[in-house]
Design goal:
Elements lengths: L13 E7 L3 H22 L3 E7 L6 H8 L3 E5 L6 H9 L6 E5 L3 E3 L3 H5 L10 E8 L4 E4 L1 E7 L2 E8 L7 H5 L4 E2 L6 E5 H7 L28 E11 L7 E3 L5 E3 L1
Parallel strand pairs: 1-2, 1-4, 2-3, 6-12
Antiparallel strand pairs: 4-11, 5-12, 6-7, 6-11, 8-9, 10-12, 13-14
Length: 255
Amino acid sequence: MTTEDLASKEKPDLSIVIPTWNGLELLRRNLRSVLEAQLRFLVDCRLSSELIIVDDASSDETVDRVPLEFPSARLVCRAKNGGFSKACNSGLGICRAPVIALLNNDVQVDPGYFLYQYPHFRDPHIFAVTAKVFEGEPPVFSAGGRFSSFRRGFWSVYSNYDIRGAESDEWTSQHDLLSLYAISGFAKYDRQKLGKLGGFTEVRLRAREKRLCRRTDVQVHDLLQAFYNTDPIQVFRSGQEIVQFHNKNGESDTQ
């Protein structure tokens, strides 16, 4: 099997979206792991996937080099830089699969990454699945399931939790580990539920981490259930930011 087999179906089972801005070197460093995970997904599950790279008006050679170096990927070129949310929505708008995987361009995934997360969407209540993330060399736990706490008059939503050790394997296999939200740089979403939310809210956020925002005109109720999957190992390599946003004063804000 070759990479051309990955999207051989008229309608794939999984859509992978990677937004990027001036990130050619990051794609060269990390995209091979995504292609390997796609192939493993195809061979082990007999399920196909499509890879969509959204270039957010880069000034490097991304637009010229991606079709040559990664011919199995579909390249979407934005004429104007719009930031993370708009870049994601540009990719989400052309996805054909029922499950969508978002990845940052500086993320490397385990070969079984899609293999482990995809089956959770058999549950009709699952909206998103987030992953366990490691950063640096040697790898150090960076992010996992999210929970909130009330302190100093505000809700804090950036706390992580993880369950480790061989003694916990049996317990985790029998329980659903919920997360307050899925981190968009390494998460999967139910396409239909994501569509009901209208995708990502296209507002300027200074925080590097972007979360899916609820639209006030959409009644979601029990649609939004995020699951924390502890199986796949994912290595997050800090590097260049994904996109850049130019504010109204002409100043450049990296997001």
